[in-house]
Design a protein that fits this description.
The chain has 437 residues and is of the alpha+beta class. It is 45% helix and 19% strand. Helix 1 crosses helix 8 and helix 3 packs across helix 10.
Length: 437
C-alpha cells in the first residue's frame, strides 16, 4: 500500500509540474494577444473538458504530459519562400502549414503566434522551462530550510586504528602504525569545536588545515557528552587521495585515484542533516544542473548502457538515466522503506527532492535548441531577431517570418528518436531497474 501511495504522489507531483509548465506558456501568450484554443493536461482520450472564453480546458486519460495549443505557430505559404520538391518531406511541410492556417479564423490573422515579435516569442516559449526551473529552486530551498541537507560535520563518526595504504582491503595488524587520532584518545561521537584556538564549525576547513600540517602538534577542543575536553595530536604524513574543489576524488587518465602526501589525523567525519540558508536551493540547483548537462551531453552513451543492461549483457548503472517508470519505482521504494532510522520527514524530503530533480531534468531537456522541444522554438525566435536586425541595418523591407514548418521532417525524426529512447528506458526500468536499496 505504501509503495502505491509513493507512486501516486510522484504522479501527482509531476502532473502539477507539467500543468504549471503549460500554464507558463499560456499566460504570456494570452497577454500578448495570441489565441489559445486548447489547454490540456495529460494525453490520450479526453476525460473532461470545459470551454471558458475561447480556450478549451481539459484533462486526458494518461497523466504525466500535457500541451497548450497556440494559434498560428507557423506562417502561411504566401509569407515565406515556396517549398520545392514533391517528396514526403515537402508534403509534410505543406501539411503542417495548412493545418496551422486552417485554425486561423477570418479577422484573427493578427492573433497568430508567428506574428509576435521575436522577443515575445522567446518569452512565451521559454516560460515553460523557466517554470520548471523555478519549481525546482523552490522545492530545494524548502528542503534546505525545513528539513536540511546531509552535510559533512566536524563530528567524529569513527576513529581509524591505523593508516592503511589507499586501496588496501584488509584489517589493521600489529605491524601497522596507529593513527594520531587513535593515540590521542579520540572517540566516536566527539565533536571538534576548535583546533589550535580557532573555532571549527565545518569539516572542510578543518580537513584542509590538517592536510597542510603534517608533523605539527595540534591542540583540539572536543565536545564529548556535553563536556569540553582537550586532546593533543600530531598528524602523520601519509599518501591520501586528492580531492577537487567539489569534494570529488581526482582520477588520472587511466582512471586511477590520484594521491599526494598530506597530513593525516585518522578520524572519519560524521554526515548529519543540517538545516540550510535561504540560498541553498539556488546553489544546489546550479550544481545539479551542471551534472544534468553532462548527462545530456553523454546521453547516447547512457542510453546504450541502459540498453545493454536491459538485454542482459551488463549490470544497470545506478548513476545512469531512468524513465518516468524508474522514477515511479524509486518513489514507491521511498514510501515503502522499512527502516526505524528513516522517519517520515526523511521520506517526505526524499520524495520532494525526486520531484524537484524531475523538474530540473524537464528544464534542461527543454532548453536544447531542437524541435519539437521548447528550445527549438526559442532558437527560431532568436533567428528571427537576427533576420530583423540585418534587415534594419540594410534598410531593407521587414524580414520574412522564420519558417519553422521547414523543420518538420527533422522534428519528426527527433520525435521518433525520443519515443524509441523512452521505450527503451521504460523496458530497462522494468527488467533491470535501478533501486535505492
Amino acid at each position: 500500500m505504501a509503495y502505491t501511495i509513493g507512486v501516486l504522489i510522484l504522479v501527482i507531483g509531476v502532473t502539477i509540474s507539467v500543468a504549471l509548465h503549460e500554464l507558463a506558456h499560456m499566460f504570456p501568450a494570452k497577454r500578448f494577444g495570441v489565441k489559445v484554443p486548447q489547454y490540456m493536461i495529460g494525453f490520450g482520450p479526453t476525460l473532461w473538458s470545459r470551454k471558458r472564453g475561447e480556450t478549451e480546458y481539459g484533462v486526458k486519460a494518461f497523466p504525466l504530459g500535457g500541451y497548450v495549443r497556440l494559434m498560428g505557430m507557423v506562417p502561411p505559404a504566401d509569407e515565406v519562400k515556396p517549398v520545392r520538391g514533391k517528396g514526403w518531406a515537402s508534403r509534410l511541410i505543406e501539411d503542417t502549414r495548412e493545418s496551422a492556417v486552417e485554425e486561423i479564423e477570418p479577422g484573427e490573422e493578427h492573433r497568430a503566434f508567428y506574428r509576435l515579435s521575436w522577443r515575445k516569442r522567446v518569452v512565451v516559449m521559454s516560460a515553460g522551462a523557466l517554470a520548471n526551473l523555478f519549481i525546482a529552486v523552490i522545492l530545494f530551498t524548502g528542503i534546505g530550510l525545513f528539513y536540511g541537507a546531509a552535510t559533512v560535520t566536524p563530528a567524529v563518526d569513527s576513529v581509524l586504528e591505523c593508516a592503511l595504504p589507499v586501496g588496501a582491503d584488509r584489517e589493521c595488524t600489529a605491524a601497522d602504525p596507529t593513527t594520531a587520532a587513535y593515540r590521542a584518545g579520540f572517540e566516536a561521537g566527539d565533536r571538534i569545536i576548535a583546533v589550535d584556538g580557532t573555532s571549527i564549525e565545518e569539516w572542510e576547513p578543518l580537513h584542509e588545515y590538517l592536510r597542510a600540517r603534517p608533523g605539527q602538534e595540534m591542540t583540539f577542543t572536543v565536545l564529548r557528552e556535553g563536556e569540553e575536553i582537550t586532546l593533543s595530536a600530531t598528524p602523520t604524513l601519509e599518501e591520501r587521495v586528492v580531492f577537487d574543489a567539489d569534494g570529488e576524488p581526482v582520477v588520472d587518465a587511466t582512471g586511477e585515484l590520484v594521491t599526494a602526501p598530506v597530513g593525516f589525523l585518522g578520524v572519519q567525519p560524521m554526515y548529519e542533516v543540517v538545516r540550510q540558508g535561504p540560498f541553498y536551493g539556488t546553489t544546489f540547483t546550479v550544481d545539479t544542473l551542471g551534472k544534468i548537462a553532462m548527462i545530456i551531453y553523454h546521453l547516447p552513451t547512457y542510453v546504450w548502457e541502459a540498453g545493454q543492461a536491459a538485454f542482459g549483457s551488463t549490470e544497470r548503472d545506478p548513476n545512469g538515466i531512468i524513465s518516468i517508470v524508474g522514477a515511479g519505482r524509486i518513489a514507491g521504494e521511498i514510501a515503502a522503506v522499512d527502516n526505524p532510522e528513516v522517519g517520515i520527514g526523511d521520506q517526505i524530503a526524499a520524495m520532494v527532492a525526486l520531484v524537484a530533480l524531475i523538474n530540473l531534468a524537464l528544464f534542461a531537456f527543454n532548453v536544447i535548441p531542437l524541435l519539437p522541444l521548447d528550445g527549438g522554438h526559442v532558437a527560431g525566435a532568436f533567428w528571427q531577431g537576427i533576420k530583423d536586425a540585418w534587415a534594419r541595418k540594410r534598410k531593407a523591407p521587414k524580414a520574412a517570418p522564420v519558417d519553422l514548418a521547414r523543420m518538420m521532417p527533422l522534428t519528426y525524426v527527433m520525435f521518433i528518436l525520443l519515443i524509441l529512447m523512452g521505450t527503451l528506458l521504460i523496458y530497462a526500468d522494468i527488467v533491470a531497474p535501478v533501486s535505492i536499496g
